[in-house]
Amino acid sequence: MLNMDLFRNGIDKIRADHDKRGLEHTRIDQVIRLDDEWKDALKQMEDARRERNQAARGISEAKKNRDTAAADTIMAEVKNIGAKISQLDEQANSLLEQRDIIRMRIPNILHEAVPIGADEGGNTQHSLHGEKPQFDFEPRTHNELIEMNKWVELERAAKIAGSRFFFLKGDLARMELALQSFAVDFIINRGFTFVQPPVMMNRKAYEGVTDLSDFETVMYGITPDPLYMIATSEHPLTAMFMDEIIEPSLLPIKMVGVSSCFRREVGAHGLSDKGIWRVHQFTKIEQIIICKPDDSWQHHEDLLDNCTDLWDALGLHYEVVNICTGDMGTVAARKYDLEAWLPGADAYKEIVSCSNCTDYQANRLSMRFRTNEGNTAVHTLNSTAVATSRALVAIMEQNQLKDGRVAVPECLVPLMGGKTHLEPCQW
């Protein structure tokens, strides 16, 4: 969430950002009003405490002078002041809670380079990578490829878990494991520490990393425990230092995490109806950076470079797009997406998101570092390296052969025991 100092001393910046996003100012005004009422309640409480202390001194002085009447008079005048202080304290706490609940719904301040647009149609191309594959046959969709090669069991998974779950089999399962290993080693070699996070989080931590009012509908809750299955390892890795003051010598902290991810996704009809593009459980390799504010925009470009270098190594065709104002969520200040070309779908589809969240998550998580001027919020950044199920789709569709087999990307061949093609599964 945005620092309260910005509401008190930089409100025009927040209003201008809302205008850019096409948002009303109602919540901004509510935060300002509640903050003023909270400060007024604190002042009344401080005045009441001062009055109580003054009365206590007066009573003590009267008793010292054996003036019982004066002491009784003062006590009668302030007999309800304790209850008044308690009431004001309760009122102040309530106002603070209301203010911050609304403040958490106000989005981050966008970077000036974010393009203006009403929806995803306003996204702009940042760069184009690789050669678009050409075929002398009608390219198949990944749904057709997994069915003809028996690499995925959807119906049998549905029997035991429901729709949008799957069994992965044979060479495709082996390549999924190779993708994990390749991506982790690739990012480790860029100076990141490998971390395996828990796959459950409590509500307090989750409210620190995302807007639950929007995101909770796609998350799996754990009953009766007050926990959520993680939707991405970004969330536990970013929240790892919640309520901590980080020594500046440790910054930047760079992590690469691997985890299963769980989402109650509901896709549009067509590509997402079947197959493994939009599913409830998948594996993702994620990059996280926690850094000093002055360094975060360079780190954002570094994360993007890691992604493009990794996907270039896979030999795939994709584009990088700048996400526009109307397609941005609450948390990020700027975001790049990588979109792979899917010949079977005849479209580019998202495979990577790369975001700088500036101090937005850190303010919610109370995650700071020491400076000469006092403790200040760190900046947090995140980027997919590889979501393996979507990477498999891109590889299958771009590297498919006429007979239905799939060529293995050269960089994965050593991790596949020298296998250069995915062969059909026998059952």
What does this structure look like?
The chain is α+β, with helices and mostly antiparallel strands. The protein has 2 domains: 4-103, Helix Hairpins (Orthogonal Bundle); 120-422, Bira Bifunctional Protein, Domain 2 (BirA Bifunctional Protein, domain 2, 2-Layer Sandwich), CATH 3.30.930.10. 41% of the residues lie in helices and 21% in strands. It has 14 helices and 18 strands. The protein has helices at residues 4-9, 11-21, 26-64, 68-77, 81-103, 142-149, 155-161, 170-188, 203-209, 212-215, 234-239, 296-313, 360-365, 388-398; strands spanning 124-129, 152-153, 167-168, 193-195, 200-202, 221-222, 227-229, 245-246, 253-262, 281-291, 318-322, 334-342, 347-356, 368-371, 374-377, 379-387, 406-407, 421-422. The strands form 5 sheets. Strands 1-11-12-13-16-10-9-4 form an 8-stranded mixed β-sheet. A hairpin with a 4-residue loop joins strand 12 and strand 13. Helix 3 (26-64) runs antiparallel to helix 5 (81-103) and helix 8 crosses helix 14. The longest helix is centred in the N-terminal third of the chain and has 39 residues, at 26-64. It is elongated. The relative contact order is 0.15. The model is unreliable at 267-271 (pLDDT under 50).
